[in-house]
Amino acid sequence: QVQLVESGGGSVQAGGSLRLSCTVSGSLYSINPMAWYRQAPGHERELVAHISNAGTEYADFVKGRFTISRDNPKKTIYLQMNSLKPEDTAVYYCHVDRFGSPFWGRGTQVTVSS
């Protein structure tokens, strides 16, 4: 069984920074792509950043502000979020594609005040 646990969310003022972490329990391989998604109230879940052996990809609305990284021995991915904006307020979810089977964490709340 694969479980994902996110941490690092919280409340910050606009312009501030947060670092999210997602640790995977169970089998995880370096070739399994991982990603961060977010969902704001009244909105659909959307992709924020993706990391795989092919590299990293970012949604346009976070390019230049967020950085996704991965520590394979620790089975952990990170999302460094800088220059946060109120519109970044959402629940952030970790996702792994394990050979075609998706797994999700429960999410961590990020609130950015103006």
Report the mean per-residue pLDDT as an integer. Answer: 96
Pairing-aware structural class of the strands and helices? Answer: mainly beta
The string of secondary-structure elements, in order, is EEEEEEEEEEE
End-to-end separation: 40 Å
What composes the largest sheet?
7 strands, mixed
The low-pLDDT segments are none
Which percent bin holds the helix content? under 10%
| Strand-residue proportion | over 45%
| Count of helical stretches | 0
Tally of strands: 11
The Cα radius of gyration reads 13 Å
Give the CA-based shape.
globular
Describe the structure.
- This protein is mostly beta strands.
- It is built from no helices and 11 strands.
- The strands form 2 sheets. Strands 2, 4, 5, 6, 9, 10 and 11 form a 7-stranded mixed β-sheet that branches. A 4-stranded antiparallel β-sheet has the order 1-3-8-7, with no helix packed on it.
- The termini are far apart.
- The model has no long low-confidence stretch (mean pLDDT 96).
